[in-house]
Amino acid sequence: MSMDERELDALLARVREETPADAGAAERFLAWHRAEQGMTAPLAARARATFWPTLLACAAVLTGVLMLRPAPALPASAAYDAYQGALGEGW
Amino acid sequence: MRRPVLLAALLWAGGGAQASDTDVLLTALQQAQTLAARGTAEVSVFFPPRSVPTRQTNALPVVPFRPALIAAHFTVKRSEAPPLAGRDVTRFDLTPKVGQAARWTIWVDRTWNVPLAFEERMPDGTLARRAVFTSVRAQPARVQRPLLPVPAGLRAAVLAALPGVRFPPGFTPTAVKTRGNGLEITLSDGINVLALVIAPRGVRAAPGVASRRVGHRFVWLVGNLPDAPLRSALAGIQTVDEGELGTFLTTGDSNT
After folding, report:
1. Which of B29, B38, B45, B197 to mutate against chain A (most A CBs within 10 Å)?
2. Is B253 on the interface with A (CB under 8 A)?
3. Do A89 and B202 touch (CB under 8 A)?
């Protein structure tokens, strides 16, 4: 089932000819490409717009929690030191 | 002059034998302010807990006895006792009239009329502190241990600074000093003491330690009492107003 040179030339010639399916292909591609860019660009902008305030809010909440959190309780030895001071000298 | 007046008051207030035992003990404690035995003493402290409870010294530790409070809050019973460090002694057992404070036993030299040993026990009999001479020198030494008077108005000022505080039965404020960013108030029933602390931070619960947050401050009560009376003393405190104690303050040694 090998093709001779004449048959191959004829096939290539048919491929080079423009068909109705080729009409407007470039416009369709460009229209699709622009639509894709239109979808992705606002998303990126929105992400940039919300990233920093969220980060700042998280930092503020964390700082508040750290500031308002009660200091950890002292060990019992601190209480015994106070008591020891009241006992009198030499104990 | 003061001693006969005190004896007469005690006789009038409490009845013969009991008043006599109390008065004899108070006379010895008064003597101990200017005279003290010297020698070798063994001092053991089990509360507050410490890694090495027993050590040796050449004198008994100081106990801030307050005669008037002892007479008011303790039942004193005098009895015979075997010699101690080779010297004849009289034994005095002191039991709180109310509350769950520790009880004490004091052994007093019959000739010098100063303590040669004392012992503090919890209500269940557990030993908290003991100091006892194992040997004494031939002569006692002159000392100066003046008893600091309780500042007039201190009790009312503490009640104003900590409205709602309930002092454990028999205890009353006897001193106050600054302690770091807070205050330390000493409560006494005549022998036992409690440390009432106002601090910026709480302290972990432990035997003899109660702590409670009041507003932006913490109040601790520390001493040889069961947990229930310690917590009960702090439970009603509504607020902390340290300014009420400003005129009584002296600077403490601790930086806690």
Report:
1. B197
2. yes
3. no
Q: Which residue of A has its CA nearest to B224?
A: A83
Residue B140 amino acid letter: P
Q: What is the pLDDT of residues A2-20, one digit of tens each?
A: 678 888 888 888 877 777 7
With an 8 Å Cβ cutoff, is A4 touching chain B? no
Q: Which of A72, A80, A86 lies at the smallest CB-CB distance from B193?
A: A86
> What is the spatial distance between Cα B171 and Cα B69, in angstroms, rounded to a whole number?
9
Q: Find the mean pLDDT for residues B23-39.
A: 96
DSSP string computed for chain B = -HHHHHHHHHHHHH-HHHHHHHHHHHHHHHHTTTEE--EEEEEEE-SS--SS-EEEESSPPP----HHHHHHHEEEEEEE---BTTB-EEEEEEEESSSS--EEEEEEETTT-SEEEEEEE-TTS-EEEEEEEEEE-SS-EE---PPPPPPTTHHHHHHHHSTT--PPTT-EEEEEEEETTEEEEEEESSS-EEEEEEESS-B--BTTEEEEEETTEEEEEEESS-HHHHHHHHHT-----GGGGGGG--B-S---
Give the residue from B181, B221, B149, B206 showing the smallest Cα distance to A82.
B221
Q: Which residue in chain B has the smallest CA separation from A80?
A: B48
Write out pLDDT tens, residues A35-83: 877 666 666 666 777 777 888 887 888 887 777 776 789 999 999 999 9
CB contact under 8 A, B179 and A76: no
Contact assignment for A79 to B60 by CB distance below 8 Å: no
Residue B186's beta-bridge partner residues? B175, B195
